[in-house]
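Q: My labmate handed me this sequence with no annotations at all. I'd like to see what the chain might look like in three dimensions before we decide whether it's worth expressing. Could you predict it?
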Amino acid sequence: MWSIGVSVYFVAVIFRTSLGVAGLDAADRFHVGASALSTFSILQLLVYAGMQIPVGLLVDQLGTKKVLGIGAVLFTAGQLGFAFSQTYGMALASRALLGSGDAMTFISVLRLGTRWFPVRRGPLVGQLAGLVGMAGNLVSTLVLARLLHGLGWTPAFAGSAVAGVVVLVLALLFLKDHPEGHEPEPFAHRGAVYVRRQIAASWREPGTRLGLWVHFTTQFPGMVFLLLWGLPFLVKAQGLSRATAGELLTLTVLSTMIVGLVYGQIIARHHAARLPLALGTVAATSVLWGLTLVWPGEHAPMWLLIVLCTVLGLCGPASMIGFDFARPANPPERQGTAAGITNMGGFLASITTLLAIGILLDATGDNFTVAFSSVFVLQALGVSQILRLSRRATRRERERLVASRVETVHVPA
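A: Here is what I predict for the chain of 413 residues:
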């Protein structure tokens, strides 16, 4: 069941990251500059982030199968629309539609994991979901890039949309929300009052807010690099060929897939490792970004670019740690809502950085050093919030654990 659900997410990530290998082609096709080009990804992520809480509520109420089905229809329609877009406005609308469908996938997969796997497997299952998403990124980097340059814009994007139809059929025919005999309790109230209570109750938990800021701080450097600005940076600023730049992007994706398994195993066995892993990832990313940007000479050496792209692969797995703070802070009936709040963090940071880089590139005449320095501002903001909330969240999590143990002890035989 989980494999069927995660296959929908896999295809959604292929579609989401397809612009990362087509950024330069899109600029030529629609005759736009850096700021307008970044608007594609900004709008897509803005729709994605804005829908996270509504989607979390929908998953809690409707279940995974229905929400994944709606999402597959929307992101497939968006990919098809992008394939046949002739104008900048039509292409923007297509990416927004794609983003709305993509927004319905990851939270649904996380919820599916909580229904089909024991609680202790939560961190590993979450990291595996992220790993499958990175496999989708790998497909767009390797396969879609070759189709784009071999067949052209419309055949490449329209052909890839067939994958969306395939996973939609699989989900509709075979997916089940939960095992037999493990149906969730029905909700008594599903109106506006219920929605407000779900959101407010999730937000009151320090673990939910800490999860949001961990996701915010860790995810966006890697996402911005893979989603749009990595290829232009490596080609224009570092003087690499598109083939070599593509290989480095592939290295980032492979690093993410390997590190995701390692992080999942570590956190499953050592719960206290969550915060050190998150902050360590932020520190490593900052150091490598700084070295690359201030390296004397016209270009950074290849070894440094290889290390940078490898370290950027840590960002995705580290962002999954945010869900490991939000998950134990909320009861089962709020898991979708809490995951939606958490998942907003990294995408809001990515939107802000994509916009800042595009504006700064246009303002400075493609000075990537100045433009990419905006990464450090958001990292500093995120780290300050993580440090502010960490003790409170840890204390609250311990209180909930003690309370659950007391309730277990007092259950009559």
